[in-house]
């Protein structure tokens, strides 16, 4: 039985052994991988130090409210966000494409509004003066709507409406324009003089008879039908 088992084991192929060349190759690849990892770690450490220095200078600069960094990959952006958080800054990433993504930093006392963030997310430039004007117009429109709802039968425009005229054509011209307007629910505001009839009763009756006479002369059949 032992001889049979030995014979079977002897006839089986031995597992391939790793040669010297293969061992050297695997060792070299492992060493290369470790070297690459070390180089990457060193690069990230250097980047972090540079960002820390740049953010420190930004905080010390009293003339800067925000800092826009150059586009960078996701790993570097993550480092920026970490450093900014430790420094007490607000940070956001913007950019429509991954290659264009960048980080912008704000000092906490100058934290961005929702409107500013929305503009950057759309890839637009932020104009604070333009935003103030748009905000003022929205407030005027909201106030006009409130006035309209609270005074639906009011004929004269509200003070805010005159303010809007003032912004467009000046103070005195705005007041005169507002005085000369009356409410018309279907057509908006029209000059009040356009809705007034300055004729006397005698003139109105004479004009009416003249129109009837002219109509009969142009259409005699209508006169016989009427009579």
TrEMBL record:
The record, for SUPFAM superfamilies, names: R3H domain
Disordered: annotated span? 1-37, 121-167, 181-227
Give the domain of life. Eukaryota
Residue ranges annotated as compositionally biased, kind Basic and acidic residues, are: 20-37, 121-152
Q: Which residues form the R3H domain?
A: 45-108
Which InterPro entries does the record associate with it? R3H_dom, R3H_dom_sf, SPAG7
GO MF terms here are: nucleic acid binding
Q: What is this protein called?
A: Sperm-associated antigen 7 homolog isoform X1
Q: What organism does this protein naturally occur in?
A: Biomphalaria glabrata (Bloodfluke planorb)
Gene (name only): LOC106055923
């Amino acid at each position: 039985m032992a001889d049979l088992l030995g014979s079977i084991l002897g006839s089986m192929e031995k597992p391939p052994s790793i040669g010297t060349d293969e061992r050297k190759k695997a060792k070299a690849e492992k060493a290369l991988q470790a070297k690459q990892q070390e180089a990457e770690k060193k690069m990230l450490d250097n980047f972090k130090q540079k960002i820390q220095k740049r953010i420190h200078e930004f905080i010390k600069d009293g003339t800067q409210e925000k800092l826009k960094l150059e586009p960078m990959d996701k790993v570097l952006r993550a480092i920026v966000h970490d450093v900014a958080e430790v420094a007490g800054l607000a940070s956001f990433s913007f950019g429509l494409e991954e290659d264009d993504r960048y980080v912008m930093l704000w000092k906490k006392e100058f934290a961005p509004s929702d409107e500013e963030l929305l503009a950057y997310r759309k890839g637009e430039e932020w104009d604070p003066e333009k935003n103030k004007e748009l905000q003022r117009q929205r407030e005027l429109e909201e106030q006009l709507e409130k006035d309209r709802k609270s005074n639906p039968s009011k004929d004269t425009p509200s003070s805010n409406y005159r303010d809007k005229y003032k912004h467009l054509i000046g103070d005195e011209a705005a007041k005169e324009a507002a005085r000369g307007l009356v409410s018309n629910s279907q057509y908006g505001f029209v000059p009040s003089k356009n809705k007034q009839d300055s004729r006397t009763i005698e003139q109105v009756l004479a004009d009416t008879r003249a129109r009837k006479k002219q109509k009969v002369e142009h259409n005699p059949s209508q006169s016989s039908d009427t009579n």
